[in-house]
Write a structure and sequence with these properties.
Shape: globular
Distance between the termini: 28 Å
Number of domains: 1
Radius of gyration: 16 Å
Structural class: alpha+beta
Helix content: 10-25%
């Protein structure tokens, strides 16, 4: 299983890229398939975080989301683990130094390097 990052030319301002989880040949019935709909976004503070595919639905005056990828046990820790894995793959594909971590998947916990820092490190932004 691997993650493929797809950049879009006409993407919303804070969309970093989209991600696809690709199931390799050894994955049994999912071999040769990919799960799409993951997106990496940059918060106003500069943190990169992952969103999962979901469907919005209304419950009275409240808007809720039904996530398509959920834990069998129903715990949020499993989805955080998947988000952390996708961000780790993103970090390694972009060669972002460890001292400038990509977000943990929860907004406001860590920050990505600023544009000036990335440019000083020779990274294109």
């Amino acid at each position: 299983m691997r993650v493929v990052f797809v950049e879009r030319d006409s993407a919303p301002e804070r969309l970093v890229c989209e991600a696809e989880v690709v199931f390799e040949a050894e994955a049994g019935p999912l071999a040769g398939m990919k799960l799409v709909g993951f997106s990496l976004w940059r918060s106003p503070e500069g943190e990169v975080y992952v969103t999962f595919p979901s469907r919005a639905f209304g419950a009275g005056n409240e808007r809720r989301f039904f996530d398509f990828l959920r834990s069998v046990e129903g715990t949020a820790a499993d989805s955080k683990r998947v988000k952390a894995w996708i961000l780790e793959q993103f970090r390694s594909s972009r060669e972002v130094p460890e001292e400038f971590p990509v977000g943990s998947g929860t907004r406001g916990t860590s920050r990505a390097p600023s544009r000036a820092t990335q440019e000083s490190l020779g990274k294109s932004v």
